[in-house]
Amino acid sequence: MQKQVLFIQGAGEGAYELDGVLSAYLQDALGPEYDVLYPEMPNEGEPDYGTWKVQIEEFLSRLNGEVILVGHSVGGSVLLKYLTHEKVTNHITGVLLIAPPYDESVLPEASSLKFDQLPRMFFYHSRDDEIVPFSHLTFFAEKLPKAAIRKFDGRGHQFCNDLSEVVMDIKGL
Question: For tag attachment on the chain, is the N or C end more exposed, with fewer CB atoms within 10 Å?
Answer without folding.
Answer: N
